[in-house]
Amino acid sequence: MSTQLPQQESEESTAEEAAEPAATDHDHEHTGGPRRDVGDKTTDTEHEPADTEDTREIRVFRYDPEIEGKQEPRFDTFHVPFTRGMTVLDAVIYARDNFDPSLTFRHSCRQAVCGSDAFFVNGEQRLGCKTQISDLEEPIRIEPLPHQDVVKDLVVDMDHFYEEMEAVDPYFDPDETPDGELEEQRQSRANREKVKMSTRCIWCGACFSSCNIAAGDNEYLGPAALNKAYRFAMDEREGDGKTQERLETIEQDHGVWRCQTQFSCTNVCPKDIPLTEHIQELKREAVKSNLKFW
Amino acid sequence: MSQSYNRGTIESFSRWREFSAGMWAWIFHKFTGWVLVGYLFTHIAVLSTAIPAASADPSTLAASGDIYTQTIVTLEELLLVRILEVGLLAVAVFHILNGLRLLLVDLGIGLESQDKSFYASVMLTGAITVASVPTFLAGAL
Amino acid sequence: MYEHDVIVVGAGGAGLRAAVAADEAGADVAIVSKLHPVRSHTGAAEGGINAALREGDSWEDHAYDTMKGSDYLGDAPAIETLCQNSPYEVIQLEHWGMAFSREDDGRVSQRPFGGLSFPRTTYAGAETGHHLLHTLYEQVVKRGIEVYDEWHVMNLAVTDEERPEDRHCHGVVGYDVASGEVSGFKARDGVILATGGPGQAFDHTTNAVSCTGDGQAMAYRAGVPLEDMEFIQFHPTTLPSTGVLISEGVRGEGGILYNEDGERFMFERGYANNDGELASRDVVSRAELTEVNEGRGIEDEYVHLDMRHLGEERITDRLENILHLAEDFEGADGLDEPMPVKPGQHYAMGGLETDENGETCVGGLYAAGECACASVHGANRLGGNALPELIVFGKRAGHHAAGKEMESAEIETGQRGEFERATVDSPVELGDPGSFGDAVADGGAVAAGGTADPDTLLEDAVEAERQRIDELLNTDGIHHSEVRSDVQETMTAKVNVFREEDGLKEALRELRAARDRYEDVAVQDPSTTFNTDLLQTIETRNILDLAEAITVGALARKEFRGAHWRAEAQERKDDEWLKHTMLSWNEGDPELWYRPVILEGENKEYEPKVRSY
Amino acid sequence: MAEHYSSFTKGGRLWFVQRLTAAFLVIVLAFHFFLLHFVHHADEVTFLMSQARMTNLTYYSLMILFLFTATFHGVNGVYNALVNQGLTGTKRQAVKWTLIAASAVLLVQGVRTANAWAGGVPI
Ligand SMILES: Cc1cc2nc3c(=O)[nH]c(=O)nc-3n(C[C@H](O)[C@H](O)[C@H](O)COP(=O)(O)OP(=O)(O)OC[C@H]3O[C@@H](n4cnc5c(N)ncnc54)[C@H](O)[C@@H]3O)c2cc1C
Ligand code: HEM
Ligand code: SF4
Ligand code: F3S
Ligand code: FES
Fold first, then answer.
1. Is the pLDDT of residue A18 over 90?
2. Under an 8 A CB cutoff, do B50 and D50 touch?
3. Which region among A47-56, A63-72, C169-178, D13-22 has the lowest average model confidence (pLDDT)?
4. Which residue among A131, C150, C455, C582 is least enclosed by CB atoms within 10 Å?
5. Which residues of A246-257 are buried (b: 16+ CB within 10 A; e: fewer)?
C-alpha cells in the first residue's frame, strides 16, 4: 500500500485551496484563458478558470522524486476550457501553460507519429494527441503508462522498452544486395502489403504497457518488439539466414510463447497494428519451421 | 536510472476500468484452468477410494456398501456439492469454449472478431449451465 | 565530460544519416539529441523523396526543376550535388530495407509532385518520413552507434576569436533531461548540427513542438551566418485547427481544391493555368489565401481539398494515412466529404550557411538538414526535396567531419570571397548585445584567451550553462510561454504569406518588446528531474533570435521571389536581388550582408526564367 | 542448416503440446461430462458400474489417456501462468519440480484407481 486514495487527496487540497485564493489569478488578455500567478512557485492542486466557460475536468497524476509535496504521488485537478477538436494533449498543454508550468509530459509532433505521448487515460493506454476530449467521460484521469517506472508526472522511463525493441535486432539484414549501386531489391506488392502494418510502429510503448504478461515477466519481449521481428522476418527481401536467426530470437523462453493472446496490445495500438495476429503468425512460423524436423 | 515510484494501488484500480474482452477472456481462462486442475486433483483423490473398495466383499459391493460408493453417495447428497458441480460445469464449459476460441486464434482464424467469440463463449456457457441445472440437482432436492 | 571523434547534434533524418556516414568513414561517432531518435520530426514527412531513378528522367532535369522551383536563388553546386546523389542515397535506403511503395514489377514506386517535370518522387505510402527515420535509426542500432538521447544541447563550445571564420568548434554542452546533469561533449574532429527547422516561431505550423531551431540559434550566436531566413514555406494544405499536414501526395494523386462557390479556383481563377493544384507550394498557398481574403473562403478561413473522386481503393492504397489524419485531427472523413485546408508554416528554406560538404565558416562545425542552408531550395523548396537533402548532405557532412577525403567545395562560407555589406532599416535595435558576458562569441570563453585548449574551453562553456540554468531556476519572473505565444502570434499575423513594410516593422517592434520581456523570464518548476519548463524557456530564447532573423530578412528583401511576397514590390528583381540575404550575429548586433547566387552549374549556366506553372 | 533445429526450444514444444492436448481434451472432457452427468447421473454412480466401464479396454485406455493429457495440460498450464508472472531462477526450478512431483503422484494414484476397477490392465 503505497499511497492514499486519490479521492481523499484532492478533497484535502480543495480545502487548502479555499484558504489560498490567490493561487488562481486571472488575466484574459493574452490567451482568453486564465493565467498562473506570476512568480508563484507553490503547488496547488485545484485549478479553476474564472468564468463559466464550458470546461472539462482533468485529473492528472503528479509525482516528482525531488520536490517536496510531490514525492507522494497525487492527482491534481484542472478545469480546462473546452474547444472543439480538443485532444487530451491540448488539455494538458493548456493546464501546463496556464496553471502549472511544472506539469511534465513528453510530446512533440501533435500528429501521432512521434510516439512520445502515450498516457493512461481513463484506464486505457492512448496517445494524448490522438484522443479527443469529447470522447471521454469526465473527470478525465490522465496517468503515466502503467508497468513502467515513473520518472516524473506523466513521464515514464522508456529504457526497458527500448531494450526490448533492440533485443530483436531491429534492422534489415539481407544476405546480399544487388550489384548495381542503382539497382534496387525487388519486393512484390503482396509482400509489402503483408509487412505494411507492422512497419507503422512508432515506439510509443502503449501495447507493452497494456500487456499483463509484460507486466509480470520483465524479460518478455513484448508485442512491439515481436512485431518488429515480424516486420523483418516476413520481408521477402531479407535473407533466410537472418530470418532463421530471428525466429530463434523470438522463440526464446521470453519470446512469443509468453504471449497469451490477451489482445490488449492490439486494442490500444494507436497505429492499428494487428499485433496479436502478427505474434500468432510468428508462433505458427516457429512451430512450422521446427516441425520440418520430424 | 532515475528514481521511480511504484504506483501500486492507484494503477491496479484504474487498470480494470476499461473493459477489454481479450483481457477478461484471459483472466477467466486462467481462473477456470486453475479451478479445473484443482478439481482434477480432488477428483482423483475421491476416486481413489475405489482402491480399498476393490478388495471389499462382492456382497458389500452389490449392496453399494463399499467405501467408494458410500463416499460418492454421501457427497452427492449434499446440496452444496450439487451446486459446486453446476459451478464446475460452468467452469469447464467456459474453459472448453474459450479454449476453442484460443485454438482458433492460434490458427489465425477470426482474430478480428475475438471479442465477439468471447461474448459468445460467455453466453453459451451461461445457457448450457442454466439448462443443465435440473439434471444436476435431480434427486438432491 | 564525454569525448568522441564526431558529435552529431540531432537525430532526425539528417543527423542519423550523418552519424552512419561518419561511422562508415571509421570515426567514433555519437549522437546527442533532445528527443529519442524515433521521435524526431522527420517522422512526420508524408509525401516522398525526389530522385531521378528511371529511364526518361535525369539528374539534370531534377536540377533544372529544383533551380526553377527555387526561383533562381539556389546555388547550382549545391543543387547539382543534391540531384546527382539523391538516386544513390534513395537506393541505399532501399538496400537498408526501407518499406517503399512498389510497382507491379517490384521496383519502388514514384509519383508526380508539385513543380516536378517527371514523376520522380519515391514514397512509402503517405508516411515516407516515418519509414526513412526508422530505417536510418535501424542502421544506427545495427552499427552500435552511441546515442545520448534526451540530452538537450544548450550551447556550442567555440574558440573566442574575433572573426567567425577564425573560430573553431570543439564540442557542445549538453543537459541531461532526466537528471539535470550538465556535461560537455568534446568532439575531436567535428560537430554536426542537424537540429531541424524553426517552425515554432509561428503559431500555425506543421512542425513539431520540438522544432525550435536550437541549432540554428546556437550556431548563429556563435558566429555562423544565417542565410535566406525570410524564405519560409507555407504549405497550402494543412488542417485548420491543428496545422497537421495533408500531404501534397493528395494533389499528386489528383486531389482538387475548391473555394466556397465550388470553383476549381487554381484554374478557374487563373492562378496556375497549366499545373493547377500541382503548382508550386507558394503559388497554391497564396491562391488559397487570396480566395479567403476575397471572401470566397469557407467560414472565412479555409478552402476544400477533395479527393473523393479518386475512389476508395486508390485512396486506401496510397493515401490511407491521410484518411486517419483528417479523421483524428479534424473529424472529416476524406472518403465522404472534402477536407478543410489552409496554408500553414511548413519549412524554412534558409538556415545556417554551409557549403556542399555541410561545413560552416566556423572550423569543425557542420550543419545538415533543415537547420542548414547549403542553398538547394533557394526561395522556395519543391515538395519531396527536403528528405533527399537530409540523406545527401547528412552523409556528406558525416564523411567530411570524419576526415574522409572529399572534393573541395565550390561554395564559399563566411565573409570570404565576394560579398556586399548592407544595413537594414529597422525601427528598433536588433539583437542582444549583453547576452554572454565578455566573450565575443556565444559559447566562447574569454578567460581561456580564445585559442585555449579544447578541454578548458569546454569546461568554461559548461560552467556558463550551469550558471544560466541556475539563474533561470532561482529567480522569480514571468513564464516563457507568454513570450513565446506573443512571438508566434506576431509572426503569423505579420510575417506570413503576404508581407508588407509596415507590418514587418511592427513585427520587429513587437519582437523587441518580447525580447525585453524575456529578460524577466524565470522557470517556475524548481526540479532538476525532467524539467521541461526549463528547456522550453531556453528554446523560447532561440525562437526569439530566429523570428527576428526571419523578419529582418523579409524587411530587407524588397522583391517578390518564391515564397517571399512583398506588397511593395510585386515582381522578381533579378538585377538587384540575385543574392542571398545573410545575417551575422556580430556580437549581438546583427549585421546584414549579401552574397551573390551561384548559377554556374557543372555543365551549364542556369538562366533565370519566369516561373510559371 | 540442421543446427537450427536444435533450437527447438522447450517453450515452443510445450506450447504446441498444450494446444494438442487442448484439442484432444475438448472431445474427451465433453464426453466424460456427458456420460457421467447426463447419461448416468452422478448420484447413481456405484463401484460396480464404474468397474463395468473400466474393464472395457477402449474405455480404460481412453481414461488413462485422458488422465495423462489432462494432467499435462493442467500442470503445464499452471506452470506457464506462473512463468508469465515472472517466475525465474531457483524459485522457478523449485516450482517446476514440485509440479512434476505432484503430477507423478496424481498419475500414479489415477492409474492405481483405474486398475482397481479393472483388476489390472484389462487385456
Ligand atoms: C508534416 C511535414 C511533412 C513533410 N513532408 C515532406 C516530404 O514529403 N518530403 C520532403 O522531402 N520533406 C518533407 N518535409 C520536410 C522534412 O521532413 C524536414 O525538413 C526534415 O525532416 C527535417 O529533418 P532534420 O533531420 O533536419 O530535422 P528533424 O527531423 O526535425 O530532427 C531534429 C533533431 O534535432 C534534435 N534537436 C533539436 N534541438 C536539439 C537540441 N537543442 N539538442 C539536442 N538535439 C536537438 C531533435 O531531437 C531531433 O532529433 C515535411 C515536413 C513536415 C513538418
Ligand atoms: C476440454 C478442453 C480444454 C481446452 C480446449 C483447453 C484449452 C486450453 C488452452 C488453449 C490453454 C492455453 C491458454 C494459453 O496458454 O494461452 C489452456 C490453459 C489451461 N488449461 Fe485448459 N483446456 C481444456 C481442458 C482443461 C482441463 C481439463 C484442465 C484441468 C486439468 C485445464 C487446465 C488448464 C490450465 C490450468 C491452463 C492454464 C491457465 C492459465 O494460463 O493460467 N484445461 N487450456
Ligand atoms: S506496436 Fe503500436 S502500441 Fe506498440 S509501440 Fe508500436 S505503435 Fe505503439
Ligand atoms: S497483450 Fe500481451 S499477451 Fe499477447 S496478445 Fe498482446 S502480447
Ligand atoms: S505528440 Fe507525437 S505521437 Fe502524440
1. no
2. yes
3. A47-56
4. C455
5. bbbbbbbebbbb
What is the CB neighbour count within 10 angstroms for residue C186?
Answer: 20
pLDDT of residue C438: 65
Q: Which domains does chain A have, with CATH numbers?
A: 23-156 (3.10.20.30), 159-174+188-289 (1.10.1060.10)
pTM of the model: 0.90
- D79: part of which helix (H) or strand (E)? helix D57-84
Q: Is pLDDT above 50 for A38? A: no
Q: What is the pLDDT of residue A42?
A: 40
Instruction: Please give the helix or strand (H or E) that residue C155 lies within, else none.
Output: strand C151-158
Q: Is the CB of A129 under 6 A from ligand 5?
A: yes
User: How confident is the model at residue B61, as a pLDDT?
Assistant: 82
Residue A31 has pLDDT above 60, yes or no: no
Model confidence over C435-478: pLDDT tens digits? 666 667 777 766 545 456 889 899 999 999 999 999 999 999 99
Ligand 1: does its nearest atom lie under 6 Å from the Cβ of C35? yes
Topology annotation, domain D13-117: 3 helical TM bundles of succinate and fumarate reductases (1.20.1300)
User: Which residue, by CA, sits nearest to atom 7 of ligand 2?
Assistant: B99
pLDDT digits (tens, 9 = 90+) for B63-85: 888 888 888 888 888 888 888 98
How many structural domains does chain B have?
1
**Inside any domain, residue B82:** yes
CA distance B86 to chain A (A): 27
Is the distance from the beta carbon of residue C130 to the nearest atom of ligand 1 less than 6 Å? no
- Give residue-wise pLDDT tens across range B32-49: 999 999 999 999 999 888
D113/B40 touch (CB, cutoff 8 Å), yes or no: no
CB within 6 Å of ligand 2 — which residues?
A 260-261; B 29-30, 33-34, 36-37, 40, 95-96, 99-100, 102-103; D 18-19, 22, 25-26, 29, 70, 73-74, 77-78, 80-81
Which residue type sits at A282? L
Domain holding B34, by residue range, is 20-137
Catalytic residue list of C: 281
Instruction: Confirm whether B77 is domain-assigned.
Output: yes
Q: ipTM beyond 0.85? A: yes
Phi and psi angles of residue A120, each rounded to the nearest 5 degrees, phi first: -105, 100
- Whether the per-residue pLDDT at A130 is higher than 60: the answer is yes
DSSP state of C566: B
Q: The domain spanning residue B64 has which CATH number?
A: 1.20.1300
Mean model confidence pLDDT for chain C: 93
Q: 3-class SS at C454?
A: helix
Q: Is residue B31 assigned to a domain?
A: yes
- Burial category of C417 from C-beta neighbours within 10 Å (exposed 0-12, middle 13-18, buried 19 and up): exposed
For chain A, counts of helices (H) and of strands (E): 10, 8
Of B48, B61, B135, the CB nearest to D38: B135
Q: What is the pLDDT of residue B76?
A: 84
Q: Which of A250, A158, A258, A163 is nearest to A206 (CA)?
A: A158
Window D:46-85, CB contacts with A under 8 Å = 83-85
State the closest ligand 2 atom to the C-alpha of A259, by its place in the atom list counted from 1. Answer: 16
Does any domain span residue B14? Answer: no
Ligand 5 and A234: CB distance under 6 A: no
Question: Which architecture does CATH list for C236-342?
Answer: Alpha-Beta Complex (3.90)
**Residue A72 reports pLDDT greater than 60:** yes
Positions of E strands within C399-543: 420-422
Provide the CATH topology of domain C1-47+129-231+349-372+389-613. FAD/NAD(P)-binding domain (3.50.50)
Q: Phi, psi at residue A91, to the nearest 5°?
A: -65, -45
Q: Which residues of A touch C323 (CB under 8 A)?
A: none
Query: Chain B: nearest CA to C179, how far in angstroms?
Result: 7
Which residue among D1, D8, D83 places its CB closest to the CB of A290? D8
Q: Which of residues C502 and D119 earns the better pLDDT score?
A: C502
Taking alpha carbons only, the member of B29, B92, B70, B69 closest to residue D34 is B92
Atom of ligand 5 nearest to the CA of A127: 4
Of the given ranges (A86-100, B122-136, C96-110, C147-161), which has the lowest mean pLDDT?
B122-136
